[in-house]
Structure formats: C-alpha cells, structure tokens
C-alpha cells in the first residue's frame, strides 16, 4: 500500500513557547497542522505570539497563521491526549525536563511519539528518566534556528528507541516538514553544532594567531570560501554573542574528553562585550555597530570601534579568483606566505583535523557531517567534500606535516582510517569509519520523492537523459512523456539566450512526442527576473528600439575589450524586441501545446514571477518569495505580468465590480511587494487556488511530474487566449487620485509617480471606457510601449545601475 508521509502524524503538541518552541509551533501551523502550544501561563503564550510577529525573518508564512496556533497551559493537559506528535522545547535543564515528562506521561496516548528539541543534553538520560511505557517512543529531534528556514533536523536515537517509529518520524519530518534529516549520535552538541561551533572557534583562534581584525576575517570567510555572506563575526552578532557563549559553554562542560576542549572558550574581549550588554544585532551593537549608513567594527586592541574595512590581500584575492573555488585554491594558499593565505589554510586544515578525529563518535558517515554543515550552517560544501575535491592525500600529508611542526590546534594524530582511505565518497556511497564500509544513500521510501536531487561531490549522480544541453538551458527527460528544463544563468535570470533556447526546447518536445514540461532549477532560486546587466548594456549601446547594427556591434566589442573583468555579453537584441520575445514565450507557455508546470523555490521576482504566472500549474515550496518588483528599478512588468494581474482581477472578482481586486493587485506591484511565502503568494493572487504548496523543495520535481500526469489523464487542455473586461478610464482616474495624494504627501518621488502612472495605464486599459472588453494583445502592446519609454529615462537607467552595483533599489 502506498505511503503518504504527511499523514503519519496529524495533531501536534509543542511543549514550551520560547524562542524555539514558538517558532516550531509556527512551522507546523504554516503547513496546516492542528497545533497546540503549551506553557506555564497564558501570559507566556501571548508573549510568544507577540514576539514572533516582530521577528525578522518572520516565522509565519502569512500573518493569518498566528491565529491558527491553539494555546494551553500545563494546568490543562487534556489536549495532549489527542496529539500524536509531541515535541518538547523547554529550558535546557535535565531535571526540569524530567519533571515535565512525568507530568504529561498519563496524558500521552499509545500511538504518540514524544521527542525533545534539546540542543545538547543527553537523549539517553532523558529517556531513562521517563516511564517505561514511553521510553521506546522518545528520541531527539533537533531543529535549527530559525526552524522555518534552516532545513536541518538531527534525529538522535537512544538504546530504547523503536526503530519503526524512528523510520516513521524520518519520513514525516522529511516530507511533511520539508527537512533534511541527519542521524546524529548522542554526543555533546550532536553533529552540526559540534563541528560548526568548532569551525567558529578555530577562526577566532587563528584570527588572533595571524593578527587579523574581525572585518578582514569576515571578508575572507564569507562567500569567497562558500560560506554565508554573514561570514564569522557578523554571524556571531546575528546569533547573539550571549547565545553563542552559552553554546560554547555547553560543549566545554559536556565534552571534557575532547582533545581540543580548551579551544571552547569565548575570547575575553567578546566576553567583555557581553558584560556591557553589546550582544549583537538584537541590541544594535556587538562586534559591529551601524551608525547611519556607516558600519563600525570593534577593535579589541584599543577597545574602540572604527570604520569597517573589508579589503583583503591582493595575493589571496588573486589565488581564489584564479582558482574559481576555495577547494581549488587551498593547496596554493598553503604554500603562500601571506598571513591571510596561511589563515585560510589553517582554518580549513584544523576543521578537517577535528572532524576526521570525531567522525566515528558523532555521526554514522561522512555524509551525515557534510549534510549537517550544509543544511544547518549553510556551507556550500561540507568539509569532507572540500578535502576530497582538493585532493585527499595532498591535504592529509600537509596536515600530518603541520601536526609534526606544531602548527595545528592539537597535536592529536589522525585516525588510522584517514591514512588508509583515498576518498570518503564513491559510487558505492559515503564512508563509515565504524565498519570501514561505504554506505549508500538511505533506502527509505521518502527519498524516492526526491528526483534528480543534487548529491555530494564524489557520490553517484542520477542518470536522467539529457535531451538538449544549451548555453543557458538544460532539458532532461524525467519519464512518462514529461521533461524538465533548468537554467544555467546566475540566479537563473532570463537572459537573451534563455529567451531563444526555451522556444527551441518547446519545439523539440512537440516534435518528439512529449506532453508536459516542468521548469525546475538545479541552482538556488527559481528566477530572479531579467538579466539587468544585459538590459543596461543594450541601452548604453543604443539598442532601446533599434536592433543591433555594425556600430552597436563594434561598441559592444570595444566595451568587452576595455572591461575584461565584467561578464561577457551574449547576443543582444533591442529592448523592444526582447520584450516581445519574452511575451511571445510566456503566452506560448500558457496557451501552447505542451502542458507547463513551474516548480518554484526561493526567489521568483519580476520576470521570474511572470514566468510562473504563465505556467498551467505551479508547485511551490513554502519558502518561495514571489513578486512583481519592476517598479523598484524604474520599470513595469512587461513580460505579460501587468496583463495577467488585470486578467486575474477580472476572473476572480467577488462581484460585478472589478476595481477592488484590481486595486489590490496594482498596489502590490506599485509597492514592489514580495510574498513572505508561497501561502502569502496565494493570498496575493500570484498563485491560484489549484496551485500546490509543499514543504520540501527536493520533492518539487516529483510532485510537479505527478501533477502533470494527473492533469493529462483528466483531459487537460491549455486555456484559450480569451477576452476580458478592464476598469478603463474611470479606474485609471480613481487610481491616479490616490497616487496624487501620496505624491503631495511626499511618499513618492516624481519618477516613482511616472513609473506608477505608466503601470496604471496598462492595468486599467486606460485608453477605453469602463467594462470595455479587450484582448491580451492590447495590454501587451501597452506593457511594451511604457516599459521602453521608462527605460529611455536617465532615472530608470540610474536605478538599474544602482541595483547592479548595490543589490538594493535606488529611490530617485
């Protein structure tokens, strides 16, 4: 019988409404589960909801979700008896947890599991203190903060654990909650925090050893080495210096047999900041402080803040740039005498040393560690992946020499398995040091839903047939007459080459008997919109309305010669023609022969939003952030987006009056509002009622394929490009009266007003009377006309260039 993992548990009890308990309850409620949150008082519960409403990023998929969480105190535990998934997330104190488990045990039904979200206490000790009837149903389920956004959940068994319940929980947490489950051993701080926190401590120690400031360290340890942009010290500020100090203290107190234990101590200068109340972002002052537009950084040498300077060594910058990845650069860095190069080598070397030594004690395989670091700490590559890509034997020999020379943070010898192995990932799986075997990926049926999932470097890759492999797109066969296409552009933007290759993909599918196409990216994000670099380049080359000629081609060649540091420009067309190409493509996706499904995760902005609006069905992960944001760069949605939202206002109106819904859509676009989730995108009208929202982005391709097959089986036909009514001149006048009030109140600039009035002209069909029946072409022509006009203005061009340089909008 087929298993539906989201049905494994239906009613949820969250014990504790603190920082983690409240957000875990919000995560369940976001996904539609009947959720009750418990605490000692109604006041504590109310404070939790109020606190979460202020949190950034928001734990709620929509403001409406906060009202869905039921609340109860421990004085009334009757509601627990109906719950089958009970998660405890109270204070990190074993005695208090024991007392709570004893209190609730009479109310726990026979089918329920009772899990703890502890981040450091022994799960075995918690289970031992519970009644006999509950012990087999207790295990660790460690979420990471913020639980809505970080995919990692560590699953920790005890000697009492019922394996069948663990498997059931793994399927549920993976599919229904959208998490990456990693089995961790019941050791202090488990896997991710044990290794991840050590990496922070190694950075702090080597920053001191090489006399590097916090801002320089952050310039070195962020995106350049495949870590989050917040790097090290900025991350500590975001987490909270006091929170980090507690995590480090927990490891120090509970892992006394660790050869590196003395490293788990917060430096005196950070401790001094904590004592002064400078805790980081939450107090607006920590290692960094923002004053106006300037960022200052604390200098422990003189105990003062100074202006931050993230300049790094030219030698190190060149090595990393020439190598393209930190993995390719590591050996070169190890040979370079520059202190910053030696710092980077030393950090990677010591994290590998530490992780290799502890692997058999904290995890089952190398895969568990690397997935934990990627899913819990947002590393692009895990430490074992990095070493295998750099060269296992080369790194091992350099590390051994550094141990002999006393350069490492511990003189502990490497485990025998490190010396014997040439790699930890192969076609057979990931290495397990406990039995010296390679372990394949889990055979749990939940992972059958993760089609074409990215694997760790060195593991066996999927063997799906590639149908077409172009410069900017890749078309693959996913079976049963369904294909999938992905983009190769940065942030999956709609470049000119994407606009030429996608119609070719559709031609291929039509000619070769395919019935459906799923647009599913292999890189992060669905689509961040148009390629603004191509757009501004075309304008500078005089290609606003005219297609390229000899003069513009010569200018383009000269520009590329003079600016070799900038990306190469592909084939450019006039802005006017590019808009028509985009419109023709998206109308074909909606009304053509091939059924189209957008599989959406992450950002879907501007043209990316227009792309999903014109697919026949959307399957979106909950953490999809969708919006038409063109006004922010001085434009309007001109890839059918303005037309589509006017059409949806007509189709979905609640009465004969189109204007209320059209006004809502107009306001969202005018304010460049982006949804906080797929759920909110549905409330905003960017997703239709029949579009599907799922928790786990790794299941997008599977669910999209199933949707396509079900639609084909039920006789789906693409909609006709039909006519619809617009609000016309009267609606335009109404909107412009509101715009005039905002302009007079200094809520928008002159150019804002120009952009927004252009948007209003398109969405209202301002050339005709109210309730006039129009066709799509009329609004598409208006989109093109006003978009080209706006791009011809200096202020819009300034906005585009500012966005490219600073990744934020300019209000001019």
Unreliable segments of 5+ consecutive residues: none
Give the tally of β-strands: 23
Helix content: 40-55%
The major beta sheet can be summarized as: 8 strands, mixed
Question: Kindly state the mean pLDDT as a whole number?
Answer: 94
Account of the 3D structure:
It is a single chain. This protein is an alpha/beta fold and 812 residues long. Helices cover 45% and strands 14% of the residues. The strands form five sheets. An eight-stranded mixed β-sheet has the order 3-2-1-4-5-6-7-8. A seven-stranded mixed β-sheet has the order 15-16-17-18-19-20-21, with helices on both faces. A three-stranded antiparallel β-sheet has the order 9-10-11. It is globular.
Helix-strand blueprint:
Elements: E1 11-15, H1 19-30, E2 34-39, H2 42-54, E3 70-73, E4 85-88, H3 94-104, E5 113-116, H4 123-128, H5 132-135, E6 138-143, E7 152-156, H6 163-175, E8 180-184, H7 192-209, H8 214-220, H9 233-239, H10 241-254, H11 268-275, E9 288-291, E10 294-299, E11 304-307, H12 314-323, H13 326-335, H14 339-362, H15 366-377, H16 383-390, H17 392-404, H18 416-420, E12 425-426, E13 429-432, E14 437-439, E15 465-469, E16 473-479, E17 482-487, H19 496-511, E18 516-520, H20 532-540, H21 550-562, H22 575-591, E19 595-605, H23 607-613, E20 617-627, H24 641-651, H25 659-670, H26 678-684, E21 692-694, H27 700-713, E22 724-725, H28 728-744, H29 750-764, E23 773-774, H30 776-791, H31 794-806
Parallel strand pairs: 1-2, 1-4, 2-3, 4-5, 5-6, 7-8, 17-18, 18-19, 19-20, 20-21
Antiparallel strand pairs: 6-7, 9-10, 10-11, 12-13, 13-14, 15-16, 16-17, 22-23
Helix pairs in contact: 7-14, 7-15, 9-10, 12-13, 13-14, 13-16, 19-22, 20-31, 22-30, 24-25, 24-29, 28-29, 29-30
